[in-house]
């Protein structure tokens, strides 16, 4: 059976870098195993889900370099969930409950004071017909719970029942089903919680590996039981650690902080985000992988650690600089030409400036400086202006190449006795108008004698 994974966000907001981690873990796992990637939208909550968000999520994934083999919407599959409900009811595994949240809360408190675990005590199984009729007459609607297989003969006497799986990330995991409440699968208003539709989909879509955040570990115990109740073999599971900010704060879809859209708008490279999202909190160093193939080589699902994957958003900037520093002209060419950076000079220009960029768009500023001169008039002291004038008059003969600058300043050093900052900074200011930037040795051949003379103070 081919490896098939899925990424299953609810389309209720923009995805953030933490969601991207889950998507990328699935994508890279599929890539490494020649598998399929299913994009599934968990949109059973019709009130909060929106097509715009689903579209935005697809846009973000494609921008990151993730391309789905299939797209599924849970909202189009309610029939399948109803079939599963019928089956569970027929098998006596789904039962109606009428408690209000306040009643449940009170029961939990009572159990705690008695030293019992605060799980649901299955009281609904003992309701008489008369009681049920009374509730219904009162207008109460039932919610439905799945009966966990944690008892021998009598559901009122649960006993330790271990569900085990070998987690792709965390190793051997065990959940005791007696430590959990029977999960509610259907709310009073008839809507589905995520638990059942997810399992039905995973079965129908032949998902072989469920890779998701470790906030779902407990769900897995329940869902494995559901797979079996529906007559299916559970898939393999892998729960990766969640990305948090350096202060340990969880990321939220709602706040919009660190959303892929906002990171894209800030001018970051997609592979910068992908590299950080995947490699943080693993035994690999966080480095800038320039392609998905390269990132796949660094990706090992078992290398994620069990503790939170903390990162400082500032790291994205440093990583982006690394990404640009090593970006080939071939990879940058199309985007540069969209900025009007083209012609014979585009390649040497790119090679000269790429090590000095925070964002690729910064190249446009350098292109202006190279083509038109400093952005602002340059203010040099009278003494420095004299030095620069004399220096420009002593430029080596053409043709210029990468060695020209060294020959030039070696001569200036000898003639003027200047060295270090005194030697270089006035030249740099005259040439670029800025105190730092690309190697002057690379800029000189780009500017040529005409460009240099235009900058003579
Ligand atoms: N919609 C669920 C979530 O975003 C999916 C979890 C899963 O992958 O099963 O948390």
From TrEMBL:
<dbReference type="InterPro" id="IPR001412">
    <property type="entry name" value="aa-tRNA-synth_I_CS"/>
</dbReference>
<dbReference type="InterPro" id="IPR020058">
    <property type="entry name" value="Glu/Gln-tRNA-synth_Ib_cat-dom"/>
</dbReference>
<dbReference type="Pfam" id="PF19269">
    <property type="entry name" value="Anticodon_2"/>
</dbReference>
<keyword id="KW-0436">Ligase</keyword>
<feature type="domain" description="Glutamyl/glutaminyl-tRNA synthetase class Ib catalytic">
    <location>
        <begin position="3"/>
        <end position="317"/>
    </location>
</feature>
<dbReference type="InterPro" id="IPR008925">
    <property type="entry name" value="aa_tRNA-synth_I_cd-bd_sf"/>
</dbReference>
<comment type="similarity">
    <text>Belongs to the class-I aminoacyl-tRNA synthetase family. Glutamate--tRNA ligase type 1 subfamily.</text>
</comment>
<dbReference type="InterPro" id="IPR049940">
    <property type="entry name" value="GluQ/Sye"/>
</dbReference>
<feature type="short sequence motif" description="'KMSKS' region">
    <location>
        <begin position="250"/>
        <end position="254"/>
    </location>
</feature>
<comment type="subunit">
    <text>Monomer.</text>
</comment>
<feature type="short sequence motif" description="'HIGH' region">
    <location>
        <begin position="9"/>
        <end position="19"/>
    </location>
</feature>
<keyword id="KW-0067">ATP-binding</keyword>
<dbReference type="InterPro" id="IPR000924">
    <property type="entry name" value="Glu/Gln-tRNA-synth"/>
</dbReference>
<dbReference type="InterPro" id="IPR045462">
    <property type="entry name" value="aa-tRNA-synth_I_cd-bd"/>
</dbReference>
<dbReference type="GO" id="GO:0004818">
    <property type="term" value="F:glutamate-tRNA ligase activity"/>
</dbReference>
<comment type="function">
    <text>Catalyzes the attachment of glutamate to tRNA(Glu) in a two-step reaction: glutamate is first activated by ATP to form Glu-AMP and then transferred to the acceptor end of tRNA(Glu).</text>
</comment>
<keyword id="KW-0648">Protein biosynthesis</keyword>
<keyword id="KW-0030">Aminoacyl-tRNA synthetase</keyword>
<dbReference type="Pfam" id="PF00749">
    <property type="entry name" value="tRNA-synt_1c"/>
</dbReference>
<dbReference type="InterPro" id="IPR004527">
    <property type="entry name" value="Glu-tRNA-ligase_bac/mito"/>
</dbReference>
<dbReference type="InterPro" id="IPR020751">
    <property type="entry name" value="aa-tRNA-synth_I_codon-bd_sub2"/>
</dbReference>
<keyword id="KW-0547">Nucleotide-binding</keyword>
<feature type="binding site">
    <location>
        <position position="253"/>
    </location>
    <ligand>
        <name>ATP</name>
    </ligand>
</feature>
<feature type="domain" description="Aminoacyl-tRNA synthetase class I anticodon-binding">
    <location>
        <begin position="388"/>
        <end position="455"/>
    </location>
</feature>
<dbReference type="InterPro" id="IPR014729">
    <property type="entry name" value="Rossmann-like_a/b/a_fold"/>
</dbReference>
<protein>
    <recommendedName>
        <fullName>Glutamate--tRNA ligase</fullName>
        <ecNumber>6.1.1.17</ecNumber>
    </recommendedName>
</protein>
<keyword id="KW-0963">Cytoplasm</keyword>
